[in-house]
Amino acid sequence: MKKILWLACLSYLVIGIAHIIGGSILEQIVTHYEISYAQGGQWIMNQFFGFLVGVLLGPLLSTKLGKRLTVVLAFGSLTVAEAVYSLLPPWELMLVVAPFAGFGFGMIESVVGALIIDLYKDKKAAAMSRIETFFGLGALFIPLIAAVLIRYHIWEWSFPILTAISGVTLLLWLSLSFGKQIDNIISQPSKQENVQAPKLAKYERRAIPFLTLSMIFFFLYVGVEMSVSHYLPSIMIERSGLSESSAASMLSLFWVFMVIGRFVCGMLADRFGYIKYLLVSMLIAVLAFVGMVLLQEAWALYVMIALSGLGFSGVFGIGLVYVNACIQGLTDRTTSLLVACGGIGGALLPKLTGWLMDHYAVGVTVNYVAALVAVMLGFMIAMIFVGGNRNLQERGH
C-alpha cells in the first residue's frame, strides 16, 4: 500500500507542476511568440477544455480499461504534449496540443484521487492529504524553479523538465508491482462492481441535493483558490503599498502554509472527524479573509494570509473524502464531478476577479473574495445538515 501511495504522491506532484507551469512562464511565452496576453490566455483556456474532458472521461475509461491503463494513457497524453511544447513549435500547434496536456493532468487528478479513496478504507483522510501535499509542493516550487530558469535565460527548459518527470512517472505506473491484490484491483476493468452492487449504479434521489451542494462548494473553493493565486500580489501592492518582491512573497507564504496544513490535515480529520475538521477549517478561512477586509497593516496581512493558507489547506482533499463517505459506491463518478466543478470554478471566477480589479477599487475585490468564502461556509453547513455522517446511497435510512 505504501508503494502505490508514494506513486500517487509523485503523480500529484506532476499535476501540481502541470497546473501552474503555464502561468509561471506566460510572460516569456508571450514575448517569444510575439502574441497578445489574450492569445496566451487562449492557450491556457485550451488546456482547461482538455482538463474537463479528461476529468469527465476518467470514470468511463477506468470502467472499460482499468485504472492502471487509464492512468498510463493520461500520463502518455501529458508527456507527449509537454514534449511538443519543449520544441517551441509554431503557435498554432501549441494551441492544438494544449487540450492533450489538460486531458492528461485532468484525468490523472480524478482517477488517482478516486483510486486512493477506494484503496484506503480506514485512513482515507490521511492518504488523501498526503497526495494533496505533493500537489501543493509542485504548485509551490515550480514558480521558484521557473524564476531561476528565467533569470539565466533558459526558461524554455521548464517544459523538458516536466516532460522528463512525467515520462518517469509513466514508466513507474507501467512497470511497478504493488502486490497481487492491488495489481488486480488497478489492472482489471471495474465492470464487476456493477454486478456486485446494481443498486449503486446511479445516485439515489436522496443523495442528489447533497451532491448538488457539494458541486457548488467545489466550484467556489477552486475559484477562490485560483483567484488568490492569480491576484494576491496585485491586491497587496495596491492595498498596502508593498514592493513587487514583498507582494510576491505573500503568495509564497499562502502556499507554504497550504503545504504545512496538508501535512497534518489528514491526521486531524481522522482523529476529530471530517465534519469538525471541515467546519473549523472554513471558520479559520472566513476569519482570515474578513481580516484582510478590515486590516491594512503589512504585518497583519501576513498573519491573515498565513491563516487563510492553513484554513484552505485540507478543504479540497478532506472535502472529497467526506462527500464520497456520504455517497458510497460511486467514487470514480463523484470524484470526477467534483474535480470538474472545481476546474470550471477555477476558470471562471478568476476572470470575474480580474474584471473587478480592472474596473473597481481593490477594496471591492477583497470584499468580493471574502464574501465568496463566507458563502462557501454557508454551503458547507448546508452539506453537513443534509449529509450528516450517513451513507445517502443506502435505502431505508
Structure at a glance:
By secondary structure, this protein is mainly alpha-helical.
What do these coordinates show?
The protein is an all-alpha fold and 397 residues long. It folds into 2 domains: 2-192, Growth Hormone, Chain: A, CATH 1.20.1250.20; 205-387, Up-down Bundle (Growth Hormone, Chain: A). Helices cover 84% and strands 0% of the residues. It has helices spanning 2-24, 26-33, 37-65, 67-86, 91-119, 124-151, 158-175, 180-187, 191-196, 208-240, 244-272, 274-294, 298-312, 315-326, 331-359, 362-387. Helix 1 (2-24) packs antiparallel against helix 7 (158-175), helix 10 (208-240) packs antiparallel against helix 16 (362-387) and helix 11 (244-272) runs parallel beside helix 13 (298-312). The radius of gyration is 21 Å and the shape is globular. Its main location: membrane.
Defining traits:
16 helices; MFS_trans_sf; about 400 residues; mainly alpha; 2 domains; MFS transporter; Growth Hormone, Chain: A
